[in-house]
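Repro:
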Amino acid sequence: MKYLDEVLEWFLENADNLMIMSDHGFERKHTAAYPNKLLESENLLSTRPPEDSSTGTRLAVRLIKQFTKRSDLAHELVRKTYNRFIHTEIAENLYQAKEEDINFAETVAWHDGWGVVYLNREYFTQSTVTNDDYEEIRQKVINTLSASTHPDTGDQLFRHVLPGEDVYNGTEGVVPDVVIDPEPGVMLYQSPMQDKIASKTDIYNHRRDGIYAGMGEAFNNASLDADIQDIAPTVLHILNRPVPKDMDGGVLTDILTESTGIEYGDPIEPGEISTRSNEDQEEIREQLADLGYLE
């Protein structure tokens, strides 16, 4: 945090305007939810043991699962023990063995992580969903996930379960068919250590809402609920650049000292994007490596 303070101090001294934002927030997670277990219970998903894990490792996972079934206390003990060794090779092998392989030839839909659900449509190799029955099956998936509650507490697990096009506007290509927005404190996983649709946990991880702050002569003291897609058009407007007409989001006029005269421009075609030199690309790689995104 001290380093971040020093960076912010430098920007405040050298920049006319400073905008700070995060693409997500952070919160305590008290519940682990397993959408694939729900889909499997409705015969929408079929699994099999992973082929690339050893017999001994799979046996260890089965024994651990049997132990965790005894009580939440047993599950909590396993969770805490695993977290102590989470970065070791043993823990990684156990995690891979726990992740069941999806039998796509008999699967209709699956949760691919981070709330993203795909239906096994024609662009997948072993498709099982045709265009004719797509909407009916997708609605069944949405209804199944929307109605899910914690088996022990009865609490709702998911805040929203939405068609993919309601979340990804104007996106071409393969987008998720369904998107899950979990309730606060609920963490989504692909495969459970217990045969339950949800279990107790105690970790910290992403939440949907992040932070936003603007400082400098371009900003007033107003507060608002900003959306991440509003940041880019707002920055373009502050820099006196035209905002492409097809850009998602809009200029956050309520936070700006001067919010009139927004200039809009034509959509940016892919061919118009300028290429970078090899030196620039290498510098970008180094920056991404420093941030931990590249090895």
